[in-house]
Amino acid sequence: MNSPDPVIDANLAVALDALLTEQSVTRAAARLHTSPAAMSRTLARLRRILQDPLLVRAGQAMVPTPRAQALREEAAAVVRRLGALLTPGAGVDPAALRTTFTLQAADLVCAALAPALLQLAREEAPGVSLRFRAEELEAGPALRDGQIDLEIGAIGHVDPETQVEELVTLRMVAGVRPGHPLTEQPLTPARLAAAEHVGVSRRGRFSGPLDTALAEQGLNRQVVAVLPSHLAAMSLAARSDVVCLVPTTSPGAAPSPFTDAAAALGLHLLDIPLPLPPVTIGMAWHPRHAADGAHHWLRDAVRRTVHAPGSPATRTPHRSSHQPRTAVSGDRADAFDPGGGQHPAEPRE
């Protein structure tokens, strides 16, 4: 007759292994940090389930039955597998990784971080490939659905479960070609407004916080072109008299990889004599990756890349919240260009 007791019970497997190994109720109880009376009740339960005495008295000792002897190795193996199943995952060996990570970021972020990230992967995780995507997907659903593994940039509106970590806060400066008229005298709001500007926006927006700051001084600027790419805007500024906006670190801080593209183009960076909102660069991921060793390596690699060699290795404390500290509304591609907001006459997409 079948026992009504449930058979699938991990605690019973552990007790069976202890009893068959120790061949003593008292010693098995000590091994599992329980009382002999409790272990006796467990043995009785096992006898009912398995319909076998398992351990029988032989003088002053107890000896296993043939069924118990047949189960001994299997019970030990089950307990070992249970232990492996319920043990926290060990740290991943980056050199053993064989995977592709998909990262979503603006072109300037890709240009700033991709070289050092690839170098880190080459040195530490040669089996890792990186796929960079433009800001073409809505980050929250894309992270949730697994279309992207990590979003890097000015993290805007996120789903409640999305985990966000701030990496660095940047300020905006004016980028101009060598010999540009703005380099000949101290930059003033009036001289900045009088120059021609190039904006950056995927949606063709012309105005933004820079225009707001100029308007407070009674000034307006002329945006002669709006481009969808930060790198294209910098390239245009390097070859003409237009002014573009470039993210950089605070005065006195270590150099940032986000200015590497401007430096490679030979742009002169001029402090803007107006209060502009800072841009906080962060990374966002879905919580299912929070404890994953491979994803942990990726996030750490991004941190080390943002804090380029020669800069402080201090990491921004982890921040996981319903809203990031700096929420950038509207077009995330405009985040690096406070002059790339929406023109009043332009409809939102």
Structure classification: alpha/beta
Radius of gyration: 32 Å
Distance between the termini: 71 Å
- Main sheet specs: 7 strands, mixed
The helix/strand order is: HHHEEHEHEHEEHEHEHEHEEH
* Contiguous uncertain segments of 5+ residues: 310-333, 338-349
**Number of alpha- plus pi-helical segments:** 11
General description of the model:
- By secondary structure, the protein is of the alpha/beta class.
- The protein is 35% helix and 18% strand.
- It is built from 11 helices and 11 strands.
- Strands 3, 4, 5, 6, 9, 10 and 11 form a 7-stranded mixed β-sheet that branches. A two-stranded antiparallel sheet has the order 1-2.
- Helix 1 packs across helix 4 and helix 2 crosses helix 3.
- The C terminus is likely disordered.
Note the main attributes of this structure:
single chain; 349 residues; alpha/beta; seven-stranded mixed sheet; 11 helices; rod-shaped; disordered C terminus
Short description:
By secondary structure, the protein is α/β, with parallel strands linked by helices. It contains eleven helices and eleven strands. Mean pLDDT is 84; it is low at 310-333 and 338-349.
Task: Write the topology of this structure.
Elements lengths: L9 H13 L2 H7 L4 H15 L4 E4 L2 E4 L1 H20 L13 E6 L2 H18 L3 E6 L5 H7 L4 E4 L9 E14 L12 H6 L1 E5 L8 H7 L6 E6 L2 H9 L5 E5 L11 H5 L3 E3 L8 E7 L7 H14 L43
Parallel strand pairs: 3-4, 3-5, 7-8
Antiparallel strand pairs: 1-2, 5-11, 6-9, 6-10, 6-11
Helix pairs in contact: 1-2, 1-3, 1-4, 2-3, 5-11
